[in-house]
Structure formats: structure tokens, C-alpha cells
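Reopening this one. Same input as before:
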Amino acid sequence: MYDLVIIGGGPAGLTAGIYAGRAKLKTLVVAGTVPGGQIYLTYQVENYPGFPESITGPDLVERMVAQVKRFGAEIREETATKVDFSSKPYVVYVGEERIETRSVIIATGSTNRLLGLESEKRLMGRGVFVCATCDAALYQDLKVVAVGGGDSALQEALDITKFANEVVIVHRNAQFSASRYLVEEVGKNDKITTMMRYTVEEILGDKYVDGIKVKNRDTGEEQVIQTDGVLIAIGWIPNTGLFKGQLELTE
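Same output, byte for byte:
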């Protein structure tokens, strides 16, 4: 019987593991197959306090995991497959294994909605990125393509222009779904151009991104755009499927 099971192994889940371990609670962190969450996919982390020379995402995660273990919390690099919160003790399943606990912290976060391209996965953290706040500074005086048409995509495209010398927004529809204010701000920014009713067919590059192939949805014409980076900003998927029927969820 555990005092606490933490479901999720990103920075939030690992931080909870540190606090619980220091409080002498018998704690298990079910961290997923790779601890660290989205930060693990970040090639270079420059905005985390304490690392003035920057640190790679995997190295930062390795240090977080070591700190959790130092205080006695157990980490399992496996995925929670089912939960039962109908009565105490609560039950968390890892595969077929039944784990009982007095309390649960849910730190499953959310997952970026991606394009689903093999090249996108292969080049993630090597020119493909999902967080302008995290990575825009890496594209000083370079060119970036931002994929998406909602508030997040346009706001992040505007943020990138503080560093990049050119930003191209590629959107599959004829109009943006973002707020009128952001659409107007994008229209006034000389660094931003837009490509409407285009889809991204492939992200190009060997070790790092050097271009994308796009397709016009009206004509079917394809073209290659040179770019140093590709921001994917097409929405988020909350990682709450595990809790359907166990907790009340919003839409």
C-alpha cells in the first residue's frame, strides 16, 4: 500500500515526487515510458533557472529523476492503464498489476496535437518545436514556419518575430480562427507572411530542419519552402482519457 501514487512523470509529477519523498510518504511515480514529459523533447533548455550555460532536455530530466530518487520516491517507467477511484484505497493499474494507494495526484498534463508525419517526429527538438516561449530565442535572425490558425499559433508567431527575421504562417483554411485582435496584429507585422489553404505534407532535413513541403488545397500544387524551424501550433489534447467514468470531466 502506497501513501501516494503520482500519475505522470513530467516536471509537475517529478516535483510532486520530490515533495512527497521529503515528507516521508511512501510514494510511487508512474512516469510513463519516458520520464520528463515534453521537456524531454527539448533539445536545448535555456530558460530553466540554475543553468546559465543551458542544458539539454534529457540531461535536465535525468537530474530531476535523480532528485526524486534521492528522497526515497519510487519511479516506474511504465504507463498507468486503468484506475478505480470508486472507493478507498484507490487503485491504479500498471498493465495487469493492481496498485493500492491512499491518495493520488494526477499530473498527466496534455499532449500537443501534431501533424502525424514521420519527419515531424524524427526532427522534433531539431528544428521542429511546439513552444515559442521555450525555443524562439534559438532562431535569432533565422526563418521559421508556424503551422496553425488559432490564437496560440498567431500569438506564438508574433512572439517568434522578436527573434527571427521572417515567419511564415501556414494554415489549412481560408480564414484564421484566432481573435480579431491577433489577426490584425499579424497583418501589421512586416516580418510575417501567410499561406492560407495550405497543408504541410513533409518536413525536410537530415539531422536538422531545412525546409517543408506544402500543398495547396485548391489546386493540389506542391512547393518547398526553405526554413530553419517549424512551430507546430494546432492545438492540445488533454491526457485525461484514463479518468473517464472515474472523475467528472469538462469538455
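So the earlier flakiness isn't reproducible anymore. For the record, The first helix runs from residue 11 to 22.
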